[in-house]
Amino acid sequence: MPNYWLSEYSSPDDEEMPDEEMPEEEPEDEEDPDDPEEKLNDRQKMMYEQYEQCVEMHGKFDQTSGGNGAHYAPASKNPFIKEGLVCSNCVYFMGGQGCEIVAGKIEANAICKLWIIPEELLGNKK
User: Fold this and answer.
1) 100 versus 16: which is more confidently predicted?
2) 55: which DSSP letter?
3) pTM for the complete prediction?
4) pLDDT tens string 35-88
5) pLDDT tens digits for 26-37?
6) In the chain, alpha helices (H)
7) 73 strand-pairing partners
8) Around Cβ 63, how many Cβ atoms within 10 Å?
9) Could you give the CA distance from residue 10 to residue 24 in angstroms, rounded to a whole number?
10) How far, CA to CA in Å, does 72 sit from each of 82, 85, 117, 120?
């Protein structure tokens, strides 16, 4: 015996309902040459994602050398400036005096232990 309950039922409003337009999704595979993340190697990309997740769960790192610290060194104490190991080259640096993962004011020529800098910006290429 056929089930007419579902197959034959139609609402008077069925024909009046407009088709819902779905917004177009942007393809995620497009590369942006100005995006510093595009210049990272696979290990650096994984580190970037892991630090981002950590900050989402626990908040930003502080600038101390404690367990929640980034071991931040201001520009005056950064011995690696000539090698390109500076916050302004790091993918987390937001310009001005901000960082995505380290709290507080961040100097452009400072450094911390959490840096992720594309290889092309490092001065000690071999």
Assistant:
1) 100
2) H
3) 0.69
4) 667 789 999 999 999 999 999 999 999 999 999 999 999 999 999 999 999 999
5) 555 566 556 667
6) 4-7, 42-58
7) 111
8) 20
9) 30
10) 17, 12, 15, 23
Token duo for residue 90: 């790091």
pLDDT tens-digit profile of 98-119?
999 999 999 999 999 999 999 8
How far CA 9 is from CA of 2, 12, 14, 63, 68, in Å, comes to 13, 10, 10, 66, 62
> Any residues with CB less than 8 A from the CB of 61 and at least 6 apart, and which?
55, 68, 69, 70, 101, 102, 103, 112, 114
Dihedral sign, Cα of residue 101, residue 106, residue 107, residue 110: negative
Count how many residues are written for the chain: 126
For residue 91 the two structure tokens come to: 């993918």
